[in-house]
C-alpha cells in the first residue's frame, strides 16, 4: 500500500480523507491544515492523525494529496516533489501557467508522477461513451450551478468551466486555433457567467457556457460528429447515443429512415451504453495509485492539467479585451 498524506481539510479535503482511509490502495498517514482549530476539530471528529508541520507529513508519506485553495497549490506541490513524493493535486493545477510549467519541469527532474483532480473524467456517464466520441466537429456544453460562496475567489472559468475544457481536450485530438469569450460579474468580483467559443485546427468548434448563479444545476455536454450525436449528462449520469448508417434496401416497418436533399437515405438507431455506478473521486485516486505502482502515465497527467489551465486562462484573457 502507498502511504498518503492530505494537505487541506476543508469540504473536499474531508471527502478525500474519508475515501483514502477506506481505500485498499492507500494507507492514510494523516493530514495537515494551516487552520489549527479546524484541523483539531477534524482530527477529533474522525480520528485522522493531524500533523502540525507540513514538512513532517510530507516526509512520512509516498504520495501527497493536495486539496488546498488554488493559490497554495504550487508551493505545496513544489515542497512535495522536491522531496521525491508523488502528487495528486486538485484542479486547477495551479494559479498561473508559469507555476504549472514549473511543476512539469520538477516532475521530470525528480522522477515522480503527478495527477490533476479533473474528476469528471471519471464520471460514469462520460467514461461510458468516451471511446464512441471520434473526431467531433461541434461540441456544446452547459455547466450551471446555484450560487455557493465557496469557490468565488476564482473566476467561474476556473471554478466550473475548466471541467468541460479538460473533457473536451481529452477527446479533440487537435491544437486550439482561436478563442473568443465573454464573462459577466454579477455577485462576485470575478465573472460569474461565461461563454467561450473554442476553434480547433481540425475545424472542430466547441461552445461552452458556465454559470454559478443559476436557479438550477445542469452539467450537460453534446458531441456532434459524422453520423452520430452523443449527449452526456454529468449530473444525472445519463447518456444518449444516436447514430446513423446507410438505410437498408428494404427497411422494416419500425425503422427510422431519413432522406436528405440529395436523396441519400440514412437509418437512425440508438445505443444504450452500460453506465456503471462508481465513486469518481475514489476512482481517480486509485487509478493514480495504479499508475505509480505500474509506472503508467496518469489518466489526467500534469501536462493535461496544464493544457486545460492554459485554455482557461486564454478564455479569461478575452474578458479583458
UniProtKB/TrEMBL annotation:
Q: Name one Pfam family in it.
A: GFO_IDH_MocA_C3
The record's GO molecular-function terms, alphabetically, read: nucleotide binding
Q: Where is the GFO/IDH/MocA-like oxidoreductase domain?
A: 156-216
Q: Which residues form the Gfo/Idh/MocA-like oxidoreductase N-terminal domain?
A: 2-118
Lineage, top-rank taxon, reads Bacteria
Q: Which InterPro entries match?
A: Gfo/Idh/MocA-like_OxRdtase_N, Gfo/Idh/MocA_Oxidoreductases, GFO_IDH_MocA-like_dom, NAD(P)-bd_dom_sf
Q: What is this protein called?
A: Gfo/Idh/MocA family oxidoreductase
Amino acid at each position: 500500500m502507498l502511504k498518503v498524506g492530505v494537505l487541506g481539510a476543508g469540504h473536499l479535503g474531508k471527502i478525500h480523507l474519508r475515501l483514502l482511509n477506506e481505500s485498499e490502495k492507500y494507507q492514510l498517514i494523516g493530514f495537515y491544515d494551516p487552520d489549527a482549530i479546524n484541523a483539531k476539530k477534524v482530527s477529533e471528529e474522525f480520528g485522522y492523525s493531524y500533523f502540525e508541520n507540513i514538512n513532517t507529513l510530507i516526509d512520512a508519506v509516498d504520495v501527497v494529496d493536495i486539496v488546498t485553495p488554488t493559490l497554495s497549490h504550487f508551493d505545496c506541490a513544489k515542497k512535495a516533489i522536491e522531496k521525491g513524493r508523488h502528487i495528486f493535486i486538485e484542479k486547477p493545477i495551479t494559479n498561473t501557467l508559469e507555476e504549472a510549467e514549473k511543476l512539469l519541469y520538477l516532475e521530470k527532474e525528480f522522477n515522480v508522477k503527478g495527477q490533476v483532480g479533473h474528476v469528471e473524467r471519471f464520471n460514469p456517464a462520460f467514461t461510458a461513451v468516451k471511446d464512441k466520441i471520434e473526431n467531433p466537429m461541434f461540441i456544446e456544453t452547459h455547466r450551471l450551478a446555484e450560487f455557493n460562496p465557496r469557490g468565488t475567489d476564482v473566476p467561474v472559468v476556473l471554478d466550473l468551466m475548466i471541467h468541460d475544457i479538460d473533457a473536451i481536450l481529452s477527446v479533440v485530438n487537435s491544437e486550439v486555433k482561436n478563442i473568443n469569450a465573454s464573462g459577466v460579474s454579477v455577485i462576485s468580483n470575478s465573472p460569474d457567467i461565461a461563454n467561450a467559443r473554442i476553434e480547433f485546427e481540425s475545424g472542430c468548434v466547441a461552445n461552452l457556457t458556465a454559470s454559478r448563479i443559476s436557479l438550477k444545476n445542469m452539467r450537460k455536454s453534446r458531441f456532434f460528429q459524422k453520423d452520430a450525436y452523443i449527449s452526456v449528462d454529468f449530473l444525472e449520469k445519463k447518456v444518449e447515443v444516436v447514430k446513423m448508417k446507410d438505410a437498408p434496401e428494404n427497411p422494416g416497418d419500425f425503422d427510422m429512415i431519413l432522406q436528405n436533399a440529395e436523396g441519400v437515405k440514412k437509418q437512425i438507431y440508438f445505443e444504450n451504453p452500460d453506465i456503471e455506478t462508481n465513486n469518481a473521486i475514489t476512482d481517480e485516486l486509485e487509478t493514480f495509485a495504479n499508475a505509480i505502482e505500474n509506472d503508467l502515465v496518469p489518466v489526467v497527467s500534469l501536462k493535461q492539467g496544464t493544457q486545460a489551465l492554459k485554455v482557461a486562462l486564454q478564455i479569461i484573457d478575452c474578458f479583458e479585451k
